[in-house]
Design brief:
single chain, about 240 residues, alpha+beta, Porin, globular, disordered N terminus
């Protein structure tokens, strides 16, 4: 593939993500109390598709997993709270596997890389509520994009009820730009349950300590609460 052809594909895919991101935000702002049934069906189709890809990926890359990165953080951000941990695993193929946990939630994320694009299925528990959903990641030079959605399931007794239907749990869409490797500006919107959409703008600064360790600090402005939130953390690369 030529450099020109490759750049054109990257540009078109990046443009698609950019337009999709803002369309999704516009759609979210119109919602009030619940997700439209058609939207729920589309979300389920998307979730099942990503889950199938993840299952196939697990069969292809089920060996040679190694713990590659570990990070710890304290504070509160758009997606973190309290003492937060993350463990990334790598192998000799294009698999994606990382675990996240804190006092309120535990999540397993598994999928596959397709160039700069990642399709991931998330399965987790948040405050005793099991949930699952797809995560889509895309990298375009210094720019990165994320679309993460989930549906939640009630407790066992309610799950057994014939009339029970999975409920919309959350939706998170964000984009960021990395400047000179150690600085990152991000903007995101989160829609959680029946709450109104919440906007976040953040700045993250990393400080390298040797080749494999980094300290990082992040300040995030919470639009709904009208307050800044702060996170401090440390990450370490275990292998290359």
């Amino acid at each position: 593939m030529s450099i020109v052809g490759s750049f054109k594909q990257q540009y078109l895919l990046g443009k698609y993500w950019y337009l999709s991101f803002f369309w999704y935000i516009k759609y979210i702002q119109k919602q009030k109390s619940q997700v439209n049934k058609k939207v729920m069906k589309k979300l389920f189709v998307m979730m099942i598709s990503v889950m199938i890809i993840s299952m196939v990926s697990a069969q292809e890359i089920k060996t040679n997993w190694q713990l590659s990165d570990v990070s710890f953080s304290a504070g509160k951000g758009a997606l973190t709270s309290g003492f937060d941990t993350r463990f990334d695993f790598s192998n000799n193929k294009n698999g994606v596997l990382f675990l996240q946990a804190n006092n309120d939630r535990a999540t397993i994320n598994m999928g596959k890389k397709f160039g700069n694009f990642q399709l991931i299925e998330s399965i987790g528990v948040f405050k005793n509520i099991p949930w699952t959903g797809p995560m889509l990641l895309y990298q375009l030079g210094p720019f990165d994009f994320i679309v993460w959605n989930g549906v939640g399931f009630a407790k066992t007794k309610e799950l057994l009820a014939p009339s029970y239907k999975p409920q919309f749990f959350f939706s998170y869409e964000g984009m960021g730009v990395t400047i000179k490797k150690n600085n990152k500006l991000s903007a995101a919107v989160m829609w959680f349950g029946k709450e109104k959409p919440n906007w976040f703008v953040s700045y993250k600064r990393t400080l390298s300590v040797g080749e494999k360790s980094k300290f990082f600090g992040e300040v995030t402005y919470n639009y709904n609460l009208k307050i800044p939130m702060f996170v401090l953390g440390y990450s370490m690369k275990l292998n290359r």
